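Researcher: I'd like a structural prediction for the single chain below. Treat it as a standalone chain; there are no partners to consider.
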Amino acid sequence: MSNCSSGTFLCQNASSLILPLLDESTWRNEVRAALYLVGLFWSFMGVSIVADVFMTSIERITSATRKMTFFNSDTGVDEQVDVKIWNDTVANLSLMALGSSAPEILLSIIEIIGNGFKAGELGPGTIVGSAAFNLLIITAVCICSVDDEGKRIKQFMVFCVTATFSEFAYIWLVIILVCSSPDFIDLWEGVVTFLLFFILVVAAYIMDKGFCFKKAETEADKEANKGLIVHDAHHINEEKLREFIKQIGKDPNLTEEEVRRLALKKFSEGMPHSRAWYRINATRQMMGGHKLQVQLPEKLQGKLAEIEGAGDGASSDPHLKAKQDALTENGRLSVVEFTSTSVAVLERDQRARLTIRRYGNVKQRVVVKAETVDGTATKNEDYVPLKKTVVFEPDETQQTVDVEIIDDNQWEPDETFFVKLTLEKDQKLARLGPKKINQVTIINDDEPGTFEFVNASYLFKESCGRATVPVRRVNGADGVAKVSWKTEDQTARAGCDYEASSGELIFNHGEIEKTIEVAIYDDQNKEKDEHFKLLLTECSEGAKLGQTSATIITIVDDDEFNGFISRLAHTANVDLDAIRVDRNTYADQFRQAMNVNGGDIENATAIDYVMHFFTFGWKIIFAVIPPPSIWGGWLCFFVSLAMIGMLTAIIGDLASIFGCLVGLKDSVTAITFVALGTSLPDLFASKQAATADDSADNAVGNVTGSNSVNVFLGLGLPWMIAAIYHTAKGGSFNVPAGDLVFSVILYTVCSMLAIVLLILRRFVKPFGCSELGGNRTLKFVSGGFLCTLWLFYIVMSALKAYGVIVANF
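Model: Treating it as a single chain, here is the predicted structure.
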């Protein structure tokens, strides 16, 4: 856009649409450059925020459903279900890709129209520069962000199609700019470039549905092929909530509000998310906006970790099989893990036996290594260190390892150490499950021990008939020990609500747990929650009472409990709707825009306050955009797209004038400042998806598709429009090949190397057979290689732009 006269640094002749607004000829160039740079960065913040709004409309549009009736053979009746209208692959390659690349695409369109339908350097340069940043830098960050287990692209055939089209897109640019009609774009070339977008979408859809090849259909595939049936994954089921409340217990230190937030956090973490969700959440985290993740204060985070730790054993989660299917990639991989995350053993037993299980693909040989790690227990003093290779032969699903415990006959507090699993090298079709570390507690048995309740509170329904409360013996289990107990009235009254009781528990030598039973009376009357106290009063000589020597037993009326669950589910679901990106009203938008962290002051960080200060103006301006809840998101879609276009025009002017002031050519400004500024939200979104998702699809699987769409829409559409204009005028649309073709060829070579690397990482054993993560050393080598390719691309493109490298096309 800029045409700086030789020897002039005023840049008053820069071809721009809007800027400068004032006569800046008397201003110092250093001041102008600084102001334009600040304005450019501030505008990048603004375009990120309005692109966030744009993505919310896309999320609403692509999540639209319609009612369908089908015959349920199990029940023998017709049932109505909600079915998604948009196929996920089509949505990702069309609206989702447009949403993440809208600034780059609109910049290219606006530049050509603003230049009187003449080609510029900023738009095409930004398209290619963004593609390089997305494929090379974002992929590098995602590879290094994932742990050693690794993550793979699930829709690999779709990835192959989009990767092929992404390479062809840039080869096609070279063909039409150098071979077909050098330095000119004919009308047919512009039309074909634009139509390739639709061919890409159709080809990816065909591959996604498996029309071109026959594959073995798994149970998960059968479920998916039932049409995209929408089960209400974004709402909390009361039965699931009831189970979760039982895990929490009636903790007197937790308010109902805190229980609601715990439930909200627990269930929101397991909900599926789209690429748009990650993009929106990343932008809001960067800009101090309303987060889409439930945030908990430190106290509640500790409580949730305690609950999840206690639930690691036998899970009643109805989604357990779905989780296992995700881990095993529907039975393709072997998954190896411990059966539990913790085990306790008496010191006198002199052995801790840990069970390792294998599920998923059990038809192959898998080798893992079990190794001990010190905790408060010390190797060679409290236990004998272990470093053992465990082999699962075909069809073997369970193995055990024994760790020798040293019985020193001296009293010590209970101590812990850990046993961790690692995969041996070259395990192509195996991975570790989430229970890859087991905590072993050595219970000292050289003293009579300390008696205490397991929890500080328990909750029982009135109709249960009997409350059963465990008492444990810790820090010793030597000899016979006794502990006395009794009940004590609180709001619950003995004889009316429960049976007054007292007694004595006798622990034989080595016994570490007993239970107390108290009868509960059901009077069939509607009552509020009531509670009584259960106390450990005294113990035999040598033994001690622990810190939790009293516990609160809360009796809840069945109707009251059901009402509590219903009320909690309702308020939690209201909150879940509040963090959904497509349910906002105007009131919600302005409230979130005017408050740091969207109004969640308690969890706002210092960075949130700083970024909210800088972006407050943008947030208020874009809060006037109609919310996505109106007209199915389409009104929000078009209004936010128009605002992105206006802001992109300003960014184009800022970048062009800034580059002129500091001596940067438009082509160099495009592949550096502009490409980075428009792609940073995608970087954070992909990193978040890489760590949170079970697969690599949302992290890197969509990058090649977006890069293809950038060319077909970002260059194909404006070039087609310009070619139509010039053809109607009897002329030709001139697009100098020069720097653009050199940059395209460089990028094409680098992208081919990057895609070859991803394929090698998927199929070669030393990399861990996964696109992301895997072998620690090799994942950082891979990331470093991709970053080096990006730097090579930037440096070589800049050298060509300034004539250091001479290449004629």
